[in-house]
Amino acid sequence: MVFEILSLGVCVGFVVLVVILLALFYIVSLFNGLISLRNNIDKALANIDVLLKQRTDLIPNLVETVKGYMKYERATLENITRLRTSMMNANTLGEKATASQAISAGLKSIFAVAENYPDLKASSNFLDLQKQLSAVENQIADRREFYNDSVLLYNTKIKSIPDMFVASVLGMKDKEYFKASEDDKKAVKVDMSADAVPEAKTDGGVNVSKAAKTKPWRKKITKTRKRKAKE
C-alpha cells in the first residue's frame, strides 16, 4: 500500500514537473518570438536610415549638376535643398517619414522639369545621379513596406493572448509606423504648386519658367532680345 502511494506520488510529481517545464518552454518561446520581432523592426529602421542618408548625400550633387542647366528653375532647386535640410533636422520617426515623402515629391519634380532641357537629359552626370536616386527611392519604398509589415505583426502579437501577458511583463509597447502623421505634415510644409515649383516654358526660344516671368531678370531677358532685334 505504501509502495503504491509512493509510486503514485512519483508519477504525479513527474507529470507536474513536465507540465512546468512545458509551460516554461512555451513562455520562453513567446519571449524569444517577441524579442525577435522587435529586433527585426530595429534592423529594418536602421536600414531605412542608411538609405535616407544615402539619398540625402546625393541631393547636393544633383543640385550642382542641374543648376547650370535650370537657370530659371531656382524655386525648384531651393525647394529640394530646403527639404534636404528638413530631413537632416528630423528627430522623430514621423518627421523623418514626412520629410522623406516630401523629398520624393521634390525629386520627381526635378526629373519632370528636366524633360524640358535636352542638354541636361544628355548629361552623363545627371543620368547617373537620376539612376542612383531612383534605385535608392525603390529601396526605401521596399524597406518602408517591410518595416511597416514588421510593426503590424509586432503590434498584433503584443495585444494577442497569450503574448500580451509576456509583453506586459516586459513593458513592450506599440511601435510607430513609418508614415507621416498630420502634425508632422504641418511641421514640414511642402508647396508643390505651379508657383512654387514652376514648369519650364519656352518664350521666344529661351526656356523661362512661370516664376521667372515675374522676376526682375525677366525684364533683362526682354531688353536683351529687343537690343538683338535692332542689331
Description:
With about 230 residues, the chain is mainly alpha-helical. It is built from 8 helices and 2 strands. The protein has a single domain, classed as de novo design (two linked rop proteins). It has a two-stranded antiparallel ribbon with strand order 1-2. Strand 1 and strand 2 form a beta hairpin. Helix 1 runs antiparallel to helix 2, helix 1 runs antiparallel to helix 5 and helix 2 packs antiparallel against helix 3. The C terminus is likely disordered.
Give the radius of gyration: 30 Å
Would you report the number of β strands?
A: 2
* Low-pLDDT windows of residues: 184-231
The tally of structural domains comes to 1
Largest sheet: 2 strands, antiparallel
What separation lies between the terminal Cα atoms? 129 Å
Assembly category = single chain
Q: What is the ordering of alpha helices and beta strands?
A: HHHHHHHEEH
- Number of separate helices: 8
Q: In a nutshell, what does this entry contain?
A:
The chain is mostly helical. It has 8 helices and 2 strands, in the order αααααααββα.
Keywords for this entry:
mainly alpha; de novo design (two linked rop proteins); two-stranded antiparallel ribbon; 3% strand; 231 residues; disordered C terminus
Write the layout of secondary structure elements.
Blueprint: H1 2-66, H2 74-89, H3 93-114, H4 118-121, H5 124-157, H6 163-170, H7 182-187, E1 200-203, E2 206-209, H8 216-230
Antiparallel strand pairs: 1-2
